[in-house]
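ESCALATION

Customer reports they have been waiting on this structure for their group meeting. Please prioritize. Original submission:
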Amino acid sequence: MDIQQLPKIELHLHLDCSLSYDVVKKLKPGITKEQYEKEFIAPANCSSLEEYLKCANAPIAIMQTPEQLELVTQDLFEQLNADNVIYAELRFAPLQHLEKGLSPEQVVDIVAKATKKGIAETGIEAGIILCTLRHFSEEQSMQTVKLAEQFKGTKVVGFDIAADETQPVENHVKAFQYAREHGIPCTAHAGEARGPESVEEVITQLKPQRIGHGVRSAENPELLDHLKKHDIHLEVCPTSNVQTGIFDSVSQHNLHYIYQNGNSMSINTDGRAISNVSLLEEYQKIEQHFSWQERHFLQCNQYAIDAAFTDPQTKAELHKKLLSGFKRFLH
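Update from on-call: job pushed to the front of the queue and completed.
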């Protein structure tokens, strides 16, 4: 199977964790490949999720001006194009990009316009998810969700909570409630650093339509069935899950078990630079370790389109594009 040629959907993709060496060289002239690997790529086996997240500090530091934000967004579209991605959702926390005097509104506006330009240049459909972070205050969470509301109708399509999963969610309940009341689709990171209880906490208190990662739900079959019954989509990121120590290797990952259980799930990179992986490479690893065929990848991409934060017309067009791209490979 020619995995490169398969059309792909990517729903779980952090803009600030996906800076290629090429774009970093433009933003930090003089940086060597060795320095880049040390600062922008997480170790293959981190001691914790916290160590993995620390690798976002270097890229965020060079995403503080309009030019920097534009270049990073453009760079990500080039990476998506190389992977034959036809739809992607890029996520980031706007409140982390204010160090050089930009306002949160300016940050979102710059990324939204750069995304629009990326779509026009590559033909890749895309949306933006704005993230609050676990350690943020209630006020910061509300500020972020109100930005998602303010930019509705641009390329901003949803709201997420990211960062250290061991921190409580109490500060964010109000923001997620606000999102529901204002028709803003939500996803939430859970079931990664902590077990199934973290997913239960999030679906009870925040009520998102999707879970970022969520793979540890499989440790509780009843929970996994609950997610399936309520069509809560799991955004699975295999390589990242190995890095953060959930699994020893991709071959040990439970993604095939989740797939066989009939849960709605997609395959994603999480952070292309931090995890040092492309979506093509994620697919290759899965093919190698689980003998997945075209039909498995097609099903996951169909699930992803159904769970995407986009309008019915775009979904219908994506389904059409996906099927025609897979047709020549399906037996």
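Sent to customer with the following note: The mean pLDDT is 97.
Escalation resolved.
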